[in-house]
């Protein structure tokens, strides 16, 4: 009566199913993560060395992606740039996610005044335009990597809070939370064991999306000259440095932009096509 | 003689998430003669709705009719093109859904929805259709037949809406009608009126049809023949009288036995003599912001007192909205009452769970109606049962494991289920886990809030037997809340009848045959009996009906 016939998409032995687009996204993301970790040992030239006799050099056998406005090796600079772009963004998104989700779940469980105060405070924070806010902070405090991380985390806390709170409010009305509550469980148990496991999936997807926003904001800040300081450069800074090469269609300005695009699009494709667990009660 | 509907060797397959196919209807044969109502009876998942839907050539998303034929008035519904099926649906075959409230568009007037079928198929002029609709409203004994069509769906009651859904189905004079559990969502007193209306319309129009239900007593009133289904196969077919009086198949006998649970021999001592475990003193509970007089905007429970003796059971019955679940929540401390108090074991309990100490919380446990939402889907059975053991009793790992096994044995679940998550359990299993979690606390009182109403009759009967058995072993007391009177009658020593937030009477099961309060009389007389002539013989005082029913 049962047969192992037709199945949409690939199936793995783990009981998860992912489609081709998701796999492509995952591969690109994995590629950039590996690059970020291995960059110092795989770059062909030190990033500070001027290796080309000309500036905005073309792609060639020696310099894969040409040279930048000072004649430095572009491939090396992009590979090293991945460290800054990925590292800073991941750190920000973790801080924003942890803070936002914790506050959101607390607000949902406690309700009443706590919910009111937290929600209004974070709404107020949310009402400040994000680019303007980061420009002001970086201009006032000065740009360093910790400042960038914290600034961008603060900007994305309200979004993570709203999302987590909305999910947690729904879970909070379920009978199993009522049961835990009248058992006399503490707030931390309710958050940790009852609510969090049931919202973690959508929350992670949301954080993936937020990561993309943070990459774009960081690149934007760096493009404006407020991000990572020379001689180091993330991808946004690389675009800015080499913007002068745009009239010559220099690879130096095109490839950092492509790197930003490939990472953000790949993350988006991945989270839109995450592996889904196969729900089949009777199988195996 | 050829029958109006002929289903031959019907096979329906469903595709699961992982791409496996499961045969959910396995070669069913069914005949319906002109003017005959055939009931499909079976537990959930037995395929009764799927068969009924196949009459319209329709299979729900994920399902596919893979074999057999469904001939309705000479047309094979399976073989027809989608366009031809659409021409038949509504005109020759019509459908009365389980939830009329979900079937009506809240933004369109009732009359326009009732005659929509006529407009689509163009079977008669709209003026004529409106006149016919009004005649149907009258035949279905709806109030204000002339003007009820001008209302919106939210302006009529649930029972009226269900009858309006029947009018919608009947408007194009279909040859075959499909009733899909049309009274399941209704209160018993409302159900009586709806069943009467259906019955008179069916006999007046000589309608043939399928009546899908899990309630044998309801089916007994309407159907000419009964088909008993299980796992997509016909178990037994027979006339209503035959099935009820001379069931052949063991499963049919089981179903019949579950409808009328056996009554226990009552323990001798009267409840009043035994020591009180729980006393509820003039409790009032409400929702919404407090008004100036200190009362909340909506008072759901008004000044109710009751008493549960140690090791005994109290039933609370009443229709939906009478405040019985709210009262349970107030006793458990989920919803603090705004007046009155709860005394447990001689000590006053805090109004809210927050003001009670862990031991008090441990001794009163509540089991909810929907096991689906009462069990955390992210936890395994082991986690769910283990938590109260750690929390209340501070058990270490080994001790806890032994106790979890014991609890699973108590509720008759195999130990192999320990590592499953709730989504991997059946409804009955979930409710047992739900109950085992309450037992894990070693309580003295368990509040059971409609715990059997989401279960099939046979499964529910097994759960009730389990409750009785555990009570004998563990000296538990139950507060048993239900709208299913036979369940309450089977298990309770005392029964409290509630109406609109008030306790109107307290009776014993023995006295249920002759209640004093008119509402109790009405409520008890409205419970369908297995006797096919019950509905025709039922006489209710119209005065009472008017006074207590919002039909």
Report the principal-axis shape of chain A. Answer: elongated
User: Strand fraction band of chain B?
Assistant: 15-25%
Placed side by side, the strands forming the largest sheet of chain A appear as 1-2-3
Structural class computed from helices and strand pairing of chain B: alpha/beta
Low-confidence stretches of chain B: none
What topology, given as strand order, has the largest sheet of chain B? 6-7-8-3-9-10
Query: Helix tally of chain A?
Result: 9
Span between termini of chain B:
42 Å
Radius of gyration of chain A over all CA atoms, rounded: 23 Å
What number is the mean pLDDT of chain B? 85
Q: Tell me the total number of β-strands of chain B.
A: 20
Give a description of the structure:
The complex is a heterodimer of chains A (284) and B (551). With 284 residues, chain A is an all-alpha fold. Helix content of chain A is 67%, strand content 2%. Chain A is built from 9 helices and 3 strands; from the N terminus they run ββαααααααααβ. Chain A has a 3-stranded antiparallel beta sheet with strand order 1-2-3. Chain A is elongated, with a radius of gyration of 23 Å. By secondary structure, chain B is of the alpha/beta class. A 6-stranded mixed beta sheet of chain B has the order 6-7-8-3-9-10, sandwiched between helices. A 6-stranded mixed beta sheet of chain B has the order 16-17-18-13-19-20, with helices on both faces. In chain B, strands 2-1-4-5 form a 4-stranded antiparallel beta sheet, with helices on one face. The A-B interface holds A 1-8, 11, 15, 17, 174-176, 178-185, 193-194, 197-198, 278-283 and B 15-23, 332-334, 353, 356, 358, 361, 366, 368, 370, 373-379, 387-388, 391-392, 423-424, 437, 441.
């Amino acid at each position: 009566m049962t047969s192992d016939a037709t199945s949409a998409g690939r199936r793995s032995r783990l009981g998860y199913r992912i489609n081709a687009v998701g796999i492509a996204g995952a591969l690109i993301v994995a590629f950039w993560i590996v690059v970020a970790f291995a960059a110092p040992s795989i770059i062909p030239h030190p990033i500070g060395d001027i290796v080309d006799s000309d500036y905005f050099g073309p792609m060639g056998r020696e310099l894969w992606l040409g040279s930048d406005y000072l004649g430095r090796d572009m491939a090396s600079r992009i590979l090293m740039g991945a460290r800054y772009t990925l590292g800073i963004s991941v750190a920000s998104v973790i801080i924003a996610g942890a803070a936002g989700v914790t506050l959101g779940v607390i607000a949902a469980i406690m309700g009443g005044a706590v919910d009111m105060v937290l929600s209004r405070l974070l709404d107020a924070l949310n009402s400040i335009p994000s680019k303007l806010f980061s420009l002001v902070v970086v201009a006032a405090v000065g740009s360093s990597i910790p400042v960038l991380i914290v600034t961008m985390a603060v900007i994305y806390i309200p979004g993570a809070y709203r999302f987590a709170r909305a999910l947690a409010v729904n879970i909070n009305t379920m009978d199993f939370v009522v049961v835990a509550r009248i058992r006399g469980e503490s707030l931390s148990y309710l958050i940790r064991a009852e609510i969090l496991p049931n919202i973690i999936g959508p929350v992670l997807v949301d954080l993936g999306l937020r990561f993309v926003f943070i990459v774009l904001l960081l690149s934007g800040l760096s493009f404006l000259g407020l991000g990572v300081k020379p001689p180091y450069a993330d991808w946004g800074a690389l675009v800015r440095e080499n913007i002068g090469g745009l009239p010559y269609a220099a690879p130096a300005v095109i490839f950092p932009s492509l790197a930003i695009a490939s990472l953000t699009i790949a993350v988006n494709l991945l989270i839109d096509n995450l592996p889904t667990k196969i729900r089949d009660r009777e199988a195996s | 003689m050829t029958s109006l509907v002929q289903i031959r060797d019907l096979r329906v397959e469903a595709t699961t998430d992982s791409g496996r196919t499961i045969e959910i209807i396995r070669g069913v044969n069914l005949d319906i003669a002109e003017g005959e109502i055939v009931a499909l009876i079976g537990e959930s998942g037995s395929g009764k709705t799927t068969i009924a839907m196949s009459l319209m050539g329709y299979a729900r998303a994920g399902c596919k009719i893979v074999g057999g034929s469904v001939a309705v008035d000479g047309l094979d519904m399976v073989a027809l093109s989608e366009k031809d099926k659409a021409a038949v649906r509504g005109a020759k075959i019509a459908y009365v859904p389980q939830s009329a409230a979900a079937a009506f568009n809240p933004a369109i007037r009732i009359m326009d929805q009732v005659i929509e079928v006529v407009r689509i198929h163009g079977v008669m002029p709209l003026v004529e259709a409106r006149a016919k609709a009004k005649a149907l409203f009258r035949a279905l004994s709806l109030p204000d037949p002339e003007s009820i069509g001008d209302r919106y769906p939210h302006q009529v009651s649930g029972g009226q809406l269900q009858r309006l859904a029947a009018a919608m189905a009947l408007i194009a004079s279909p040859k075959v009608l499909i009733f899909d559990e049309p009274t399941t969502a209704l209160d018993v007193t409302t159900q009586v009126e709806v069943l009467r209306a259906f019955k008179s319309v069916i006999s007046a129009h000589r309608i043939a049809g399928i009546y899908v239900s899990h309630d044998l007593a309801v089916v007994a009133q309407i159907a000419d023949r009964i088909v008993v289904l299980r796992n997509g196969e016909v178990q037994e077919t027979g006339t209503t009288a035959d099935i009820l009086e001379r069931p052949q198949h063991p499963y049919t006998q089981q179903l019949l036995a579950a409808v009328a649970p056996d009554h226990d021999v009552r323990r001798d001592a009267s409840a009043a003599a035994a020591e009180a475990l729980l006393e509820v003193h003039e409790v009032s509970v409400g929702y919404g912001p407090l008004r100036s007089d200190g009362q909340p905007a909506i008072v759901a429970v008004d000044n109710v007192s009751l008493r549960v003796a140690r090791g005994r059971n109290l039933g609370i019955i009443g229709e939906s909205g009478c405040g019985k679940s709210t009262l349970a929540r107030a006793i458990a401390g989920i919803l603090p009452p705004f007046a009155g108090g709860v005394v447990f074991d001689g000590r006053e309990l805090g109004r809210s769970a927050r003001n009670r100490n862990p031991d008090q919380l441990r001794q009163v446990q509540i089991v909810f109606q929907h096991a689906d939402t009462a069990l955390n889907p992210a936890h395994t059975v082991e986690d769910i049962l283990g938590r109260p053991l750690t929390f209340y009793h501070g058990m270490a790992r080994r001790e806890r494991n032994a106790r979890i096994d014991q609890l699973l044995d108590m509720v008759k679940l195999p130990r192999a289920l320990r590592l499953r998550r709730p989504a991997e359990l059946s409804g009955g299993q979930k409710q047992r886990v739900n109950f085992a979690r309450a037992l894990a606390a070693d309580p003295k009182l368990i509040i059971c809030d409609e715990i059997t109403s989401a279960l099939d009759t046979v499964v529910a009967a097994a759960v009730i037997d389990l409750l009785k058995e555990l009570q004998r072993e563990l000296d538990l007391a139950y507060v048993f809340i239900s709208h299913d009177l036979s369940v309450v009658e089977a298990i309770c020593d005392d029964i409290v009848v509630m109406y609109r937030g008030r306790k109107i009477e307290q009776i014993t099961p023995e006295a249920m045959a002759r209640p004093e309060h008119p509402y109790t009389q009405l409520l008890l007389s409205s419970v369908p009996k297995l006797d096919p002539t019950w509905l025709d013989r039922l006489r209710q005082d119209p005065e009472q009906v008017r006074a207590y029913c919002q039909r």
